[in-house]
Automatic annotation (TrEMBL):
Subcellular location: Endoplasmic reticulum membrane
Annotated Gene Ontology cellular component terms: endoplasmic reticulum membrane
Keyword Membrane: yes
Entry coiled-coil feature ranges: none
Protein name stated in the entry: Reticulon-like protein
Topological type in the membrane: Multi-pass membrane protein
UniProt record, GO biological process: response to bacterium
Pfam families: Reticulon
Regions crossing the membrane: 6-24, 69-100
Annotated ranges, domain Reticulon: 25-151
Keywords: Endoplasmic reticulum, Membrane, Transmembrane, Transmembrane helix
């Protein structure tokens, strides 16, 4: 009989103690936080300017005013399309992650060889672009660009 009473009494005392601690204890004091209005407005203004600049660049590319940039974007999107058809997004993300962590280290190690190769490649690309411009792009008729009047 004594063991049964002690088995019932001990958990009841522990439960009462737990309830007293919960009910009597005051809630923690959480400080009031205020964000000043000026930094938020400055950030929003800077963000608006950057977004408008990006939209201007996208409009210029889409309108074809800068033909070299237009063709570069088309080629880049074509390459992304080919890569996307070969593997899924997670694989592309993994490859990009590995490249972003290994290419800078390799460039620092072989900087002289990479720079000389890049100069040769840039000169060759400029030659090829000049030939492409002379044979193809110069034969495309262009009408006069009409500028909108801003009042």
């Amino acid at each position: 009989m004594i063991q049964f009473n002690s088995l019932v009494f001990c958990p009841i005392c522990g439960l009462i103690k737990f309830l007293v601690l919960i009910l009597i204890r005051r809630p923690p004091q959480i400080p009031n936080l205020h964000i000043p209005e000026d930094p938020v407005l400055q950030f929003a203004s800077a963000l608006r300017i950057e977004i408008n600049t990006a939209l201007d660049v996208l409009r210029d590319i889409a309108s074809g005013r800068d033909l070299k940039m237009f063709l570069t974007v088309i080629a880049g999107l074509w390459v992304f399309s080919i890569l996307g058809s070969c593997c899924n997004f997670l694989t592309l993300f993994y490859i990009a992650f590995v490249l972003l962590h290994t290419v800078p280290v390799l460039y620092e190690k072989y900087e002289d060889q990479v720079d000389s190769f890049a100069e040769k490649a840039t000169a060759e690309i400029k030659k090829q672009y000049a030939v492409f411009d002379a044979k193809v792009l110069s034969k495309i008729p262009r009408g006069p660009l009409k500028d909108k009047k801003k009042d």
